[in-house]
Amino acid sequence: MTLLRPGMLATVLAALVAVFLLMPLVAVIPVSFTPNRYLSLPDGEWSLRHYQTLMTNPAWAEGAWLSVRIGLLSSLIATGLALLFSLGIWMIQPRFAALYMGLALLPMVAPPVVSALTLYFFLITLSQFNSVVAYDTWIGVALAHAVMIAPFAVVLITVSLSQLDRRIDLAARSMGASLPTRILRVILPNIRFGVLTALFLTFVLSWEEIGVTLFITSVNAVTLPRLMWMGLRDNIDPAIAAVSVLLIAIVVTVILGKYIAQRLFSERG
Amino acid sequence: MPAPTRALLLIGPLLLFLALVYVLPFLGILRWSVTLPEPGLEQYRAALTDPLVRSVLWRTLRICAIVTVLSVVLAYIVALIWVRGSPVQRLVVELCILIPFWISVLTRAFGWLALLSNRGIVNGWLQATGLTSDPLTMVRNEFGVVVGMVHFLIPFAVFPLASAMRSVDERVLMAARGMGASRARVFWQVFLPMTRAGVIGAALVVFVFALGFFVTPAILGGGRSVMVAELIYLRIFQSPNWGLGAAISVLLMLAVGAMLAALLRQARPGGGS
């Protein structure tokens, strides 16, 4: 085995790539403590003023709350529809399954900018008829996000269904279980982890979505990423660094927490 | 309940939702491209002959090609350690892939601005150590765009590469080594060719993603090296020419569709190669 471990050169190169991957994430930490109003390193003096801005300027809390609402609604819609769809494909195996699957995955593989323009068209068309599901409204954004994230839920749920033994469903069916019973009492308990993962992933994808959001919002539905975008485009605002540090801290905590939890469980069992 | 009705109840809602919110509006874009400002294929002709659009398309292809090569090469090295390294190495590499993967594209682009801008960290070091006297311009140009895109796309290239590497039979490598091949030769003549499908898959995934990239080039290019996705945004919102924006979108969709078809052919056993 040792014979075929990667050599010294590959290890050193991979370490350099690892540094490259982490470098921009580490770089935002000192920048967030700068006392200046512009992008700079703290020069001797460290300051919490940009973190204070996040607390005192209500725009940040409003943006975050809006993103949470949009994330919850869109991930529920996307995961719900994706769950029904994946169950249908797995249980019934319809004739044109590959075609349906291709259609369901379309928003994931199409260029994001084309999807953005398409959803912009959808929402401005609806704006002519109502003001609830329309351009620059939170429900409009949630619907658009649901389209973009549904394919990811389809992939995750389909993968967890493919690991399920078809015979347990056949057994339930031959003993006379109805379709809802098979789904609720036999299949769902077995794929609940996949469904929860889909819900979580789609929420995160909506929470950080910016490409489509830029096309379909202007001044009312300002999500957290949209707010960051505005701070990045014109005058680079170090408050973005403070937000970024908080977001990175959340991701690192979740990922490390998952590893530690896995380690603890595998040691016990 | 007959089978077709049940199928419709389960499969129908998502397909109906996508048809209404995605497919139908896309047909609207298609209509824009042939009706705005007047009926005809004028916008397609403009998209393919207008010097500005052509220069943007050319730059997009060039940047995508550079980004694809760099991302796949760097991802290959990382995937190699992830699949064949020691347990500690594997864990470290896994974290280095997963943490950036989960972090928003905006935060990552901002990190590169903090590092590479004129008053950024790298220029600070260079000037403090006396290597340069004037700041090097590393963002708001193609260099910054390439760095940011490679950084974003490496994780997407690592996954297909790692899965190709995991399917390489250890014994084949042992056999090559046993028959006297040097370690380098085993890598170049046995291992690399056996992971070729993964390399092609990763390259296609990265290229397709890069083509439609919007956020990273817009931030790190600073409006100076506009790529096709940003051009579409500009034609819709800043100097409106909806017909042209729509026509470029349709062309982009077709290009990506053709590449995905190639990817599917390549992935199907017996097809392609």
TrEMBL record, chain A:
Residues 64-258 form the ABC transmembrane type-1 domain. The chain crosses the membrane at residues 70-92, 99-126, 138-162, 183-204, 239-261. It comes from the Bacteria. One of its GO terms (biological process) is transmembrane transport. It holds the Pfam family BPD_transp_1. Its main location: membrane. It is a multi-pass membrane protein. The keyword Transmembrane applies. The keyword Transferase does not apply. CDD domains: TM_PBP2 (cd06261). GO terms for cellular component: plasma membrane. Keywords: Cell inner membrane, Cell membrane, Membrane, Transmembrane, Transmembrane helix, Transport. It is found in: Cell inner membrane; Cell membrane. Belongs to the binding-protein-dependent transport system permease family. PANTHER family: INNER MEMBRANE ABC TRANSPORTER PERMEASE PROTEIN YDCV. This is ABC transporter permease. It comes from Szabonella alba. The lineage of its organism: Bacteria, Pseudomonadati, Pseudomonadota, Alphaproteobacteria, Rhodobacterales.
From TrEMBL, chain B:
The chain crosses the membrane at residues 7-30, 60-83, 95-115, 143-165, 186-215, 242-264. Keywords: Cell membrane, Membrane, Transmembrane, Transmembrane helix, Transport. Residues 57-263 form the ABC transmembrane type-1 domain. InterPro entries: MetI-like, MetI-like_sf. GO terms for cellular component: plasma membrane. One of its GO terms (biological process) is transmembrane transport. It is found in: Cell membrane. The keyword Transmembrane helix applies. SUPFAM superfamilies: MetI-like. Its main location: membrane. PROSITE patterns: ABC_TM1. The keyword Transport applies. It is a multi-pass membrane protein. CDD domains: TM_PBP2. It comes from the Bacteria. Pfam families: BPD_transp_1. Belongs to the binding-protein-dependent transport system permease family. CysTW subfamily. This is ABC transporter permease. The lineage of its organism: Bacteria, Pseudomonadati, Pseudomonadota, Alphaproteobacteria, Rhodobacterales.
